[in-house]
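Lab notebook, design round three. We kept the backbone fixed and only want residue identities now. Task for the bench partner: fill in a sequence for the structure below.
Input structure tokens:
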């Protein structure tokens, strides 16, 4: 039993270190070209500093950054593929919603009907609910203002620029079907 607990903690530790390190590498910018000698040295320095900072943060932070459930979910290769497909769909929806909002705002007659729409979903895990709420908020013209768990799933209250557009999206399934597919094992 002790070995299993140690292994879980070790997995949580290294997943957190790798995640923070990748985040560090994504946000730290190397100004020099990588293929030049100075650029390669700069990249190595950034990598070493990022790894040290990631190790320090995870070592000094008293609670696990990722839960065992999250680690188990994202270890599966199928989940990674479905996540990439979901991100692709989300990016398309963001662009399309941005175009729709721009079209509505630039017309002489504003074609907006702002309001708060209540959306019931079968999503019940914290990861699913969080992903759906953030996806709605990232989409231009909508923002998730409240979420409540219910016996059957969850209810989202969304403020939107056009109630009709949101209702059409929700009738077609919105992000819910893909999020449920993402989290299946």
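Proposed sequence:
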């Amino acid at each position: 039993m002790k070995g299993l607990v140690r292994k879980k903690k070790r997995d949580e530790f290294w997943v957190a270190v790798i995640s923070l390190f990748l985040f560090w590498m994504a946000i730290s910018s190397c100004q020099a070209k990588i293929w030049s000698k100075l650029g390669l040295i700069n990249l190595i320095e950034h990598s070493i500093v990022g790894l040290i900072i990631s190790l320090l943060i995870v070592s000094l932070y008293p609670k696990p950054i990722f839960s065992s459930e999250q680690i188990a979910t994202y270890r599966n290769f199928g989940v990674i593929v479905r996540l990439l497909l979901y991100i692709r769909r989300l990016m398309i929806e963001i662009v399309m919603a941005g175009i729709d909002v721009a079209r509505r705002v630039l017309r002489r007659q504003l074609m907006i009907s702002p309001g708060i729409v209540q959306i019931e979903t079968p999503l019940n895990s914290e990861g699913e609910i969080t992903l759906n709420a953030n996806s709605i908020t990232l989409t231009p013209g909508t923002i998730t203002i409240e979420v409540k768990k219910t016996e059957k799933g969850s209810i989202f209250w969304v403020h939107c620029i056009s109630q009709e557009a949101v209702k059409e999206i929700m009738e077609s399934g919105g992000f819910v079907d893909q999020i449920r597919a993402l989290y299946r094992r």
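Keep this in mind before ordering anything: The longest strand covers residues 142-149.
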